[in-house]
Give the backbone structure.
Amino acid sequence: MECSLDFSAVIFDLDGTLLDTLGEIAAAGNAALSRMGFEPHPVDSYRDFVGSGAKKLAWRALPEGHQTQDAYDRLVPILLEEFEQGLNTVARPYGGVPEILAEFAAAGKKMAVLSNKPHEFTVQAVNKFLPKVDFFAVYGGRRDIPLKPEPDVALELAKAMGAAPERTLFVGDSDVDIRTGINAGMIAVGAGWGFRGEGELVKAGANLVLDTPADLISLL
């Protein structure tokens, strides 16, 4: 697969792009729901719940007929507690990701992580699973900072890395990531191996969709 692009920096999403965390997210979500007396969801349901941060996930996970402000306000802190307790217990990097990122570094590409996952959880996950990767910065969702698909943080990262937006790749597995890349004027690359699949990424306007993590090498 040959699709070499002209770029100097890459911003990666985390969950569903670099790390397979679906089972871990589902376990935390279902444990939180159970504590509130609600039935759990199938793991695959969480493919559609994730992508917009923990608070949006909490709302989406509430059962039909129970999506009230009161239930939401009670669920959010419980969900965050369950996330923290189960953090990095089930998650793992997708196959070959550490080695692929090492090749990007060897090629002189600057790299950063931008996730809507709470910031402290994002940093902990990267430190555990990708400790040898020299990321320029690792950002998760932070208080009073716009989440993806708003382009603010992506543009801030590109500027800090000395890369023009049009020479920056934004790689992610959801429509939120693709819209972030487009909103920032970057090259939006879909991670077709992630939680949402090729169809959503194409519909969102991805410049390119890759089938496997190994296909990232073709971008160099």
Residues 149 and 177 are 6 Å apart (CA to CA). The radius of gyration is 17 Å.
